[in-house]
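Q: Hand in one record:
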Amino acid sequence: MMAQPLSSAIDTAFKSNIVPDQEYLLQGSVLDKVVEVLLHRLRGLCDNVDSGPEPFQDHEMCFTIRTTPTPLNLRVRRALDHQEMPWQLRYIGQPEYGDKMRPTIIRSSIDIGCSATVVEFLTELGCRMEFEYIARGYMFRKGRMKITVSKVFKMNQNKSQESMEPLSESYLVELSVLAPRGQDAIAEDMRSFAEQLRPLVNLDKVDFKRLVHGPP
């Protein structure tokens, strides 16, 4: 039997809805002074109770390339605390907020492992880096759900980690699931889990356009 070409196999996989190309997302924030209380609550609710949360320190760069009708957004992330790990190239589509009854944001998301030359490759393609930052915090797991609690730091000119400046006096909290299309029941599970974290943090659908431009 003739082997199926790789491009054809990938196309078939997407059409069969077996590729996790969609992200369900809720976001919120918690002040520095109460983040330990939230971490304690997550230790009790999540799967990695015995081993504890997984610490991480990532450097993320956000690129855009001008396309029609909307720019294409790409993100490159590398683990500063695990230099041996491959870099990650990620495509993120425009968020779908839907009606008010939809529990989460839904957006297209595709992750690809790559080498450190990916930044040079994107630059040669004509991509422009819009901004970069360091995210340092903890990751928890609850079934298919991933929960991150991270402090966001601004990159300085010499890119020294010793003199990083925090962007705010709070931590970013994200609850997300990567899944194939059409599994909207996941969003209800996420809403139920988010309710267990109130009133410490309010995880919700964040419309960043409204934050920047205000209500219509």
About this structure: Residues 153 and 166 are 4 Å apart (CA to CA). Confidence is low (pLDDT under 50) at residues 1-14, 211-216. The domain at 22-212 is CATH 2.40.320.10 (Hypothetical Protein Pfu-838710-001). The helical segments are 6-15, 35-45, 118-125, 185-195, 208-213.
